[in-house]
Design goal:
The protein is an alpha/beta fold. It folds into 2 domains: 164 residues, NAD(P)-binding Rossmann-like Domain (Rossmann fold, 3-Layer(aba) Sandwich), CATH 3.40.50; 128 residues, no CATH class. Helix content is 42%, strand content 13%. The protein is globular.
């Protein structure tokens, strides 16, 4: 395979990480985003995927061998999620079709494949954990399934291979991202330290005491490139997590210690971050001005609603990676190290104090 990649959503957590990994492995990388961010070795392409004609024009000269989809646009209803997010995948695949260069398409979805969309998250009859790829689709509308169907249909039409990647909650850096637990927790911890409020776990007893796992953006990026370059991984769906499991009752203390905090005792009461952080915008602006941070808008850093959804689950969530291991993907990333590396990056880049 020649090595030109198109990363769709290159300004996001997953997209930025996969673009960096592709550059590291010697690929020529095209980074498509509505507002690309500067990234070493990545050629930016500006496109609004809600505009098929403009996207076709933006990609007219692109001849990617592999396309990596790391995008979604949150809508008010799941019906709208399906319509909008499937259309974005279709728009890109239609735009690159005339060049007939694409040999592999990778799509990042997630564990909502097993848990259901936000409208029906964790409801009804769910597959047994740990989640395994052979556990099929839920009998419910889900934009992940619609995105997959766009890839499958284009693959049958155009003859490329595909891979589907289902990470758990992703730990990585991006500003303005809709689903960003790592930076949300960093901002929350910084606010607790500033105000003297207790660093209180916001979620459920099931998450506090139960086992869980997560996915580092760098682990996900390595997995995406591995699948695109490993023949045995073609036309397969994969779970991808760090490889360790933990309980939040342990991880919460690890995060607190990094920020010099003492974690509050958990009494089993759910107190969402959306509630705890609702009045913190002015406090964050004051911190940003005093510490010369580069992002004074708390909403650009934190996504409390998403962190609340993950930490408020009423069930234990653990993910099996046996399928990838059997095919040779053996990378491992301790989750606490992934959090600490992110916090160090956020501090070095003046995003948190």
């Amino acid at each position: 395979m020649s090595k030109t990649a198109l990363v769709v959503g290159s300004s996001g957590i997953a997209g930025g990480a996969v673009a960096a990994e592709l550059v590291l492995q010697g690929w020529s990388v095209l980074g498509l985003a509505r507002r690309p961010v500067a990234q070493a070795g990545v050629t930016p392409i500006v496109a609004d995927l809600h505009d098929p004609a403009a996207t076709a024009t933006a990609l007219a000269d692109a001849r990617p061998d592999a396309v990596f989809f790391t995008i979604w646009a949150r809508q008010a209803t799941e019906a709208a999620n399906i319509r909008v997010n499937a259309a974005m995948v279709r728009t890109v695949l239609d735009a690159v079709r005339p060049a007939a260069s694409v040999r592999h398409v990778a799509l990042v979805t997630g564990l909502k494949h097993y848990l259901g969309p936000f409208e029906a998250y964790g409801q009804g009859v769910l597959p047994q954990t740990p989640f395994r790829e052979e556990q099929g689709r839920l009998n419910i509308d889900n934009f992940y399934y619609a995105q997959e169907d766009e890839v499958f249909g284009a693959a049958d039409r155009d003859g490329f291979a595909w891979s589907i990647h289902r990470p758990h909650t992703i730990i990585g850096k991006a500003v303005g991202n809709a689903m960003n637990m790592g930076t949300t927790l960093a901002a929350y911890a910084s606010l607790c330290r500033e105000t003297g409020r207790p660093f209180r776990f916001p979620g459920s007893e099931a998450q506090w005491n139960g086992l869980t796992d997560m996915t580092s953006a760098t682990q996900l990026a390595r997995h995406l490139v591995w699948a695109a370059t490993t023949p045995a991984a073609a036309n397969q769906a994969f779970n991808v997590v760090n490889g360790d499991v933990f309980r939040w009752k342990w991880m919460w203390g690890r995060i607190a210690d990094w920020f010099g905090l003492v974690p509050a005792e958990f009494d089993g009461t759910i107190l969402p971050l959306e509630v705890q952080m609702a009045e913190d915008h002015a406090v964050w602006r004051r911190i940003a001005e005093r510490e010369t941070l580069i992002e004074p808008d708390l909403d650009r850093l934190a996504s409390p609603w998403h962190t609340d959804a993950d930490l408020g689950r009423p069930i234990e969530v653990v993910t099996d990676m046996g399928k990838s291991r059997r095919l040779g993907f053996l990378d491992y990333q301790p989750t606490d190290d992934a959090f600490f590396a992110l916090f160090e990056q956020l501090r070095a880049e003046r995003l948190i104090p």
